[in-house]
Every structure is written in C-alpha cells, then in structure tokens.
Design a protein that fits this description.
about 70% helix; cell membrane; ABC_transp_permease; membrane; ABC transporter involved in vitamin B12 uptake, BtuC; transmembrane transporter activity; transmembrane
C-alpha cells in the first residue's frame, strides 16, 4: 500500500461523514436530536446526482443536494418544533422517507456515470514532493469540509450568535425569557444540518463513487450521529472521528484487494466497530458536553 495514496484516500473517504457530522453537531447544540441524517444524506446523494447528470455541472449538483436535504430537514423541524412531535420517532420517519424517496428518484439513473469535481492544482503546495500529492491535490469539497469544521468551532466559541445557539440548547426556557426566538433559532440550525448532510450525500454520488446506487450511504448517517455523541459535541473530536472512520474504511478495502485471509464480512464491518470502539474509549470517563435540553420539546407558553 502506497502511504501517499493511502492518506489521500482517507481524506476523500472521511469527507462525507465529516460534512454530515459537523452539521448534526450544530443541530444538537441547539437542543434538537435529529436521527434523520441517513435519510437526508441519501436524498442529497440522489438529487445531487440527478441534477449533475442533467446539467453536466457537479457544482449545481452539490447546490441542489444541499437545498433538497435542507428543505427535507425543515419538515422534521416543523413537526418537532411547531407541532411538538416526538423527535426520535420523527427522525426515524425522516430516514425512512429519505430512503424511499431516493429509491424512487434514482431508479432511472442506475448505471449512469456523473460528472465529478476536478482536482485543485494549488500553486507551489501541489508541487511538493510528498505532501503535495497527499494533502494538496484534492477537490474543493475536501478543503471546504475542513474549513467548515474550523468555522463551526469559531462560531460556537467566539460569536454572539453561537453563544445564543448554545444557550437555547442548554436552557430553552431561559433563552425564551430573555427574548430569543427559540423555535426560529432551532429551525435555522436544522436547516444548516440538513444542508451539510445533503453535501455529504452528494459527495458520495458525485466524487467518491461517481454513480448512483440505491442505499449507497450504507449507514454513513448513523456513523455521523455516533461520532457527534462520542466526540462530546466538540468540533475537533468530530474531525478525528470522521478521519478515523475514513482511515479504517480505506484500510479494509485495501486488505480485501490484497486478498487478506480475513472474512470479507468482518472486514466490511470493521470501520463501524473500530470507530465506535475508539470513540467509546475516548469518552470512557463519561460523555460530557451534551446540551441540557437535547431532545426536549419547547413549549412557548412555558
């Protein structure tokens, strides 16, 4: 296994998980538990693929994927924040809707190839002997995902809007008493999380595997959810968790290609098992950082 290609492959493999997880972290920081990440990712994957194939533009595909998943997430937001439906049940329903909708939309596109994003040729950095090909020869979404992690971290830690978002997640009643629009803030967070999940799904169908296959997210949304929880709602740990999952995924694919004497089923499940095991060990002292109002409905009259 070429270590340069291995690291480059890990960055590509981790990007969809990272995009979905960082968006879900913002949603949960606002006090909302959305279990529909898988449904939003698969919706983004099929909408992005369909738009990219029909327009010839992967950029438009990504934009359409983000918008479609964000709009889908708003249905969850309205049901849970306006009509106060159960967040767990509604999130699971969102996943089922996304899976069914994607199968319907994607049927005519099976077997097609999509246009994909070009690699960026970063001047000087891309020409470095080892690091150039390893770190500086990727498509723009890889760097956008890393920039998004930094932006979310800075937003939550240093900005007034980030403080308000965290306050809503910690005590929606206190935030409401101070005059903040709790439902509006949470809907905005849900919209952002849906857009991020859509981008992650589109990355799967437009870059990582530039074709449409039913169910191609293969549990990536659930891994994103697990990463957020075990990373204790911290952006840096979310990044580590996503890259850990990406690394183990690439490693098991290389081992399968090399004909390793390990059952294929065990190799296929290893990314999920190892990622969760390591994240559990990281948080062995207890999972801290969960917003106090996570999953609790807000009653405007309270």
């Amino acid at each position: 296994m070429n270590p340069i290609l291995l690291v480059a492959s890990i960055m590509v493999s981790a990007t969809p998980i990272l995009l979905a997880a960082i968006g879900e972290m913002v949603v949960e920081k606002s006090g909302v538990l959305n279990l529909g990440v898988e449904g939003m990712m698969i919706t983004g994957a099929v909408v992005g693929f369909a738009v990219a194939v029909n327009t010839g533009s992967p950029v438009l595909g990504f934009a359409a994927a983000a918008l479609a998943s964000a709009v889908l997430s708003l249905s969850f937001g309205v049901l849970t924040q306006v009509f106060l439906s159960n967040q767990v049940a509604t999130g699971l329903g969102l996943t089922l809707v996304g899976l069914g909708l994607s199968a319907l939309i994607g049927k005519p596109y099976e077997g097609m190839k999509s246009p994909t994003l070009p690699k960026l040729d970063i001047p000087l950095l891309g020409d470095l002997p080892v690091l150039g090909r390893m770190l500086f020869s990727h498509d723009i979404m890889v760097y956008l995902s890393l920039a998004l992690v930094a932006a979310v971290w800075a937003f939550l830690k240093f900005t007034r809007a980030g403080l308000i978002l965290r306050a809503v997640g910690e005590s929606h009643d206190a935030a409401h008493a101070l005059g903040y629009k709790v439902v509006r803030i949470r809907l905005m967070a849900i919209f952002f999380g849906g857009a991020c999940a859509g981008l992650g799904g589109a990355y799967l169908s437009l870059v990582r595997v530039p074709q449409w296959t039913e169910g191609m997210t293969a549990g990536a949304g659930w891994i994103a959810l697990a990463i957020v929880v075990f990373a204790s709602w911290r952006a840096g740990r979310v990044l580590i968790g996503a890259y850990l999952f990406g690394g183990v995924t690439v490693l098991q694919l290389n081992l399968q290609a090399a004909g390793a004497r390990v059952p294929v089923e065990l190799l296929s499940t290893s990314p999920y098992l190892i990622t969760i095991l390591v994240l559990v060990l990281i948080s062995a002292r207890g999972i801290h950082g969960a917003p106090a109002c996570l999953g609790r409905p807000f009653h405007a009259s309270s």
